[in-house]
Structure formats: C-alpha cells, structure tokens
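Journal club prep, shared notes

We agreed each person brings one worked example of a sequence with its structure written out as tokens. Mine is Helix-turn-helix domain-containing protein. I'm keeping it raw so we can talk through how to read the token line rather than staring at a rendered picture. Sequence first:
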Amino acid sequence: MAGSQIESSLDGWPIAKVASFLGVSKGSLYVWSCHDKWGGRYPPAPKRVGRRLVWNPQEVIDYRDRRCAISRKELVYGE
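Then the structure, token by token:
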C-alpha cells in the first residue's frame, strides 16, 4: 500500500478504526491493551496520547497482512 492511501491523524489510528480494519471488537483491543498481550498472535501495541489509545497505521496493516490466513475466532479467542 502506498503511504498516500493510509489515512491517519498525526497521532495514529483511534481504536474504532483499528477494530473495524481488523474485524474485531473495540472491547478485544481494550482487553489486550490492559493485559499486555502483544506480539506474535496479537495486534501491535498502542501508544497512549492523552487519554486515548492510538495505533501506528503501518504496524496494523503489516499485522493484518501477516495474519490474514487465520479466522476471526482464532484472532479473538486464540483457538
């Protein structure tokens, strides 16, 4: 994907956009961020900007492209 096709704010993507892009609930992303479940099987870690969690768009896209062969159930529940 070309950089011009990646829409993002200066900070990154908000949780709603990441959840929609990955096809998971916002709740799942919140749970993963609270329990530090990142790396490998989970989406990239967010950074905190003020009170918001934001994700680097390129990291989210790269994660989705690597994990596209798994089902949504496996992503959410690890099964």
